Amino acid sequence: MRGERRRPAPPAADATAVLDDAHLAEILLRLPSAATLARTAALVCRRWRRVASSPAFLRRFRRLHPPPLLGFFVCRGGRPYRHRHFGDPLPGEPRDEGPLPALDPTFLPVAAPPPGAAGAVRRCGEFSLSSLPSVDHWALADARDGLLLLCSSCDRSTDGGDNLELRRIPQHFAVCNPLSGRSVLLPQRDAGMYIGYDYLGATLVITGDNDEGDFFSFEVLMATYFDKGPLLCAFSSSSQQWAVFPCPATEKLYDYRMPWIDDGARAGGCVYWVVHDWEMEFQHLLVLDTRTKKFSTMNLPASDMCDKYDRNVKVVRSEDDGDLRVVALARPKCELHFWRRDWSRSAKGRWLKEDVVKFMKADGILHFLEGRNGCPFFGAMGLRMIGVGEGFVFFKHNDTPWVYVLNLKEMKLQKLPNREMYSGYVLPYRMALSPPLPNLDQEGSH
Length: 446
What we know:
- The chain is globular.
- The strands form six sheets. Strands 11, 12, 13, 14 and 15 form a five-stranded antiparallel sheet that branches. The chain has a four-stranded antiparallel sheet with strand order 3-4-5-6, with no helix packed on it.
- The protein contains eight helices and 24 strands.
- The longest helix is centred in the first third of the chain and has 11 residues, at about 35-45.
- It is of the alpha+beta class.
């Protein structure tokens, strides 16, 4: 009838309502990306969100759709230990003997973010340490499956001033999802648990990776130096307890004193540290297998590698179980030398020289190398790598407080908006849909 208002059409029926959860999950598994899954499940209905957020489903989805790289978190404010430098500070670097400032990490997004991931990239760029429990100053320690592991950083105001390189063992750890903003504070270790003298590093391991049962759990593996060798202390979210794992094979690895050990890097299921001692004339990789919780050693690609490259040697970070790679920086020539571990002939494996990347002609390199002396050759001598992974190499230079990143594919050098002298870890971050973090019943968890 003319003038009569037309009633709105009833909402369309959910065509998947006749399907059980298992069949609905099979349909959702065919969505092209994690971003599409999150957006679709959020818009359709509560049932879709429930199926798409179950831990068992998310584990299957991650295996079918490898998490895309969103970018890198670069720690500002340093490692859990700091180097004390003598003499005048560099230009632009204040002389600060007070507590470490709580500086938010810099997030460097990849040039072309995955389709539908613009919101996730924006949230990573907005991530702030203020979202974490306010129990300590925080520093990045590891990144895995869309989660960040953070540990407490030291307070320089309590340094005795005699120790040039302090590797204090962190008192606090937290696991955070920078996309959701949720974090959990791990319980502290028992006061009577002796865990060594010096901190080597920590890594986050996602456990319970099977399709039976809807649960999500993780472990934090912390490596320390104890007496004459490495020691492992592990936290389990299932038991909510810390435990020490002895490793008799390496407990007397260094009979005299602690050698020089780098920051370490995770590749596949292992964590690798470059170890070197000039006086005792040895160098190798210290290896922690996160699955067996055992330490071992592995030869470097060359017997005199640390001497030849002045310790500018790094293991290439990798989240998958691909090839193990080592890169060394030949500073005078501005070359990166890559080796790959070949396992095809034996279980022991062998090193193969894979590539030499010459970056002297990279876009922006001359301005980077000029430094104080204006000569690219001498400027190159002040270079050092602070992180390598996912086709990017991060540098610091002795004459500048900036962090630079080299894109190996495009051969472009970029300066990060970061004037901190101590940058700490550089961690690749991948967008992985994770179940909610477990409730550890810790005061301060968010």
